[in-house]
Amino acid sequence: METRKDNMQKIASFSGGKDSTAMVLRLIEEDMPLDDIVFFDTGWEFPQMHEHIEKVEKYIGRKITRLHPHIDFEHWMLRRKIVARKGPMKGKIHRIGHGWPSITMGRWCTRQKIDTIKKHRGNSIRYIGIAADEATRLTSASGMKKGDKGDLYPLIEWDMRESDCLEYCYSRGFDWGGLYKHFWRVSCFCCPFKRLGELRTLRHHYSKLWAKMLAWEDDMEKPLRGFRGYTTVHELDNRFAEEDKQMKLF
What pTM does this model have? Predict the structure, then answer.
């Protein structure tokens, strides 16, 4: 893979998922320039993800840099004072907490992640783990536009698809404690953009995390309908409970 012939640092943007893990492992196996591996810890990761990251560190023999949001996500979601920018409440506090990230109300969590990584990145070259069958994401990858200076996409150059990345990681002993048996993506456990089936699986197999989501929503000033179908977690919980009843009957 061609890299830039300069003295700029090369850093890997590492989410801990199958694609970025496969990218980091192969970069190291092929002895590619790699000065830093950066993981943004949202505080909403599956416990198995933290175990996975520690396992990767032991495997590659080096530390992974952990970044954190400058404002705790739970505070941002539940307790941050929101000042109106327009309307009759302009300049006044009109809501407490942003609520769940959503398409309609904004993906505030993604913006914090992008800004924190950009600040840490500085003037460096970044490896991004976008798989070959997701190349269309280049138009909006991590807030960058296609062709922006300083980004490299090794998985696309290696023609590694998402399924290839998962098998590559499995072959080296990484299994995320079984997360990929339940989910195709292992982003934040409480992500409102999960598919309905994944949310159902979360409730069934990871009940403690689901209970935490219900508790968070109880603490929201006004739960926003940010999940699939613009429903709340409680509405989803009632739906899934009713489905369980029907399954038992039939």
Answer: 0.86
CA distance 203 to 205: 6
Amino acid at 226: G
Helix (H) or strand (E) segment spanning residue 13: strand 10-13
pLDDT digits (tens, 9 = 90+) for 101-141: 876 666 888 888 888 888 888 888 999 999 998 877 776 54
Q: Which domains does the chain have, with CATH numbers?
A: 10-249 (3.40.50.620)
- Tell me how crowded residue 147 is: count the other CB atoms within 10 A of its CB: 8
pLDDT tens profile 56-78: 999 999 999 999 998 889 998 89
Give the separation between CA 39 and CA 60, rounded to whole angstroms: 15
Which of helix, strand or coil describes residue 233? helix
**Long-range contacts of range 41-45, CB-CB < 8 Å, 24 or more positions apart?**
41/66, 41/67, 41/68, 42/69, 42/73, 42/109, 42/113, 42/188, 43/68, 43/69, 43/72, 43/73, 43/74, 44/73, 44/188, 44/189, 44/190, 44/191, 45/16, 45/188, 45/189
